[in-house]
Amino acid sequence: MSLKKKEFVQSIMTKDPITVSTQNKLKDVYNIMKEHSIRHVPVVSGDELIGIISQSDIERVTYVEEGLDEHIRSAFIDMLRIDQVMTRNVNVLQVDDSIKEAAEILSMGSYHALPVLDEKKLVGILTTTDLINYLLKHY
C-alpha cells in the first residue's frame, strides 16, 4: 500500500455539509438524517460552528421511547431543542490537517465525524466512512 504522507483532509472530506442552527427543531434534524442517510449534522450560527448533533445523540434521548410507535416518538423528538441534545466544544480539523492526523483523532475518540474548518468557517465534515473509503481506494 502506498499512501501519501501529507495528504490533506480537504481532499477526502464531504464539502459543504448539510447544517442546522439552533433555530431548527430537533425533528428537522431527525428528518434530514433520514432523508439524506447521514448520521452527523453540524450546528452553526452563520458560518461558525457551535456544535454537532449525531444520530446517536438523538437515539440516546429517545431511547426510553423505543417501544412506542413512530408518531409518538416523533412528537417526543419535536418537544426537544437542538441545543439540549447537541455536543458543544467539538473536536475539529483544519483544511490543511493531514489525513493521518484525522485518523489519529478519530481513533482516540468516541465519535465518528469531525467538522472541517477553514480558520473559523465550516467548510466540510470528515467521517470514519470517508476515511475508510480513502483507505480502500489506496489498498
Keywords:
single chain, 139 residues, alpha+beta, CBS-domain, 4-stranded mixed β-sheet, two-stranded antiparallel ribbon, 6 helices, 39% helix, globular
Summarize the SSE layout with pairings.
Layout: E1 14-15, H1 26-36, E2 40-45, E3 48-54, H2 55-62, H3 70-79, H4 82-85, E4 93-94, H5 99-108, E5 113-118, E6 121-127, H6 128-138
Parallel strand pairs: 4-5
Antiparallel strand pairs: 1-6, 2-3, 5-6
Helix pairs in contact: 1-3
What does this structure look like?
- This protein has a single domain, classed as CBS-domain, CATH 3.10.580.
- The chain has six helices and six strands.
- The longest helix has 11 residues.
- The model has no long low-confidence stretch (mean pLDDT 88).
What oligomeric arrangement do these chains adopt? single chain
Strand content: 15-25%
Radius of gyration: 16 Å
How many independent structural domains? 1
**Helical region count?**
6
CATH hierarchy: architecture: Roll
Span between termini? 5 Å
What CATH calls the topology is CBS-domain
CATH superfamily grouping: CBS-domain
Q: Give the helix/strand class.
A: alpha+beta
Count of strand segments: 6
Shape: globular
User: Mind describing the biggest β-sheet?
Assistant: 4 strands, mixed
Summarize the structure.
This protein is an alpha+beta fold and 139 residues long.
